[in-house]
Specification:
Layout lengths: L7 H4 E2 L10 E2 L6 H10 L3 H7 L5 H16 L1
Antiparallel strand pairs: 1-2
């Protein structure tokens, strides 16, 4: 049986050495919960990307997929 790795696992990391183990966007110190909070406050993706230039649309999608995956458990 082939299992598909979740897309977010390529972009989101959990490392006890980074922000006390909070999930962050790989290669940054931007926590997933911050991205989700900002999206909840204002769904304008352009505003969020302008505020955090290191983020990409794929990073945002990964955060949403991460949240969906953890809610579904």
């Amino acid at each position: 049986m082939i299992t598909k790795q979740a897309t977010f696992q390529k972009r989101i990391v959990v490392d006890p050495e980074i922000l006390a183990g909070k999930p962050v966007i790989k290669g940054t110190r931007i926590p997933v919960d911050l991205v989700l909070k900002r999206l909840a406050q204002d769904l304008n993706v352009a505003t969020l990307l302008a505020a955090y230039p290191r983020l990409t649309q794929d990073d945002l999608k990964a955060c949403l997929e991460y949240a969906r995956d953890h809610v579904k458990q």
